[in-house]
User: What shape does this take?
Amino acid sequence: MDEGGERDEADAPHYHGHRERLRDRFLEAGGDALADYELIELLLFRAIPRRDVKPLAKKLLEEFGSFAEVIAAPEARLKARLKPAAIAELKIVKAAADRLARGAVRKRPVLSSWSSVIDYCRSAQAFAEREEFRILFLDKRNQLIADEVQQTGTVDHAPVYPREVIKRALELAATAVILVHNHPSGDPTPSRADIQMTQAIAEIAKPLGIAVHDHIIVGKDGHASLKGLKLI
Assistant: This one.
């Protein structure tokens, strides 16, 4: 400290300089210039101001696997390592990512922006720990009317009732749907049950003038399109 009792620069914790350098590098070169653990550090700085968070960021990556998996991790699991303020910082980024992806889907006809649809589906649920069955309801111009999670299940199953899917489409006056669900295992390969369920929905929908454009399965290892696989 100096004579006035103020802490001088030499007395500052070593991580203060690291934080400034990391922020500067992010602002100058962008997120692609940083490793996953460094992006997590940036998120933790505000919630944990008086601690070196690099070891914690690396621990989170070690436990969950990637930046995307860290911010998408269930709060119950994050609580083992983080306090509510830090969890909130991660979840704000997750919510922002989902909103950006959803906005890209809403702006134009879905079939003309297929990559945006895939990005949104992966952002919304690829890293969920339980299966979720989502439906994107479209109008006659293939623009999004509604985006709804109809069922949430277990780690390897979500109950789907074809007649309920069609009932909801009729309520919304939808002329087409895109079915989406996730595989928490990470492998998006469709199961026999996935194929049969999709075909059952398509058979009920067709006479009513409702098209099933696709059934997309997402997981942390990628995605699968039943239409692309010629299964519908």
Notes: The two ends are 73 Å apart (CA to CA). Residues 1-12 have pLDDT under 50 and may be disordered. Residues 9-97 form one domain.
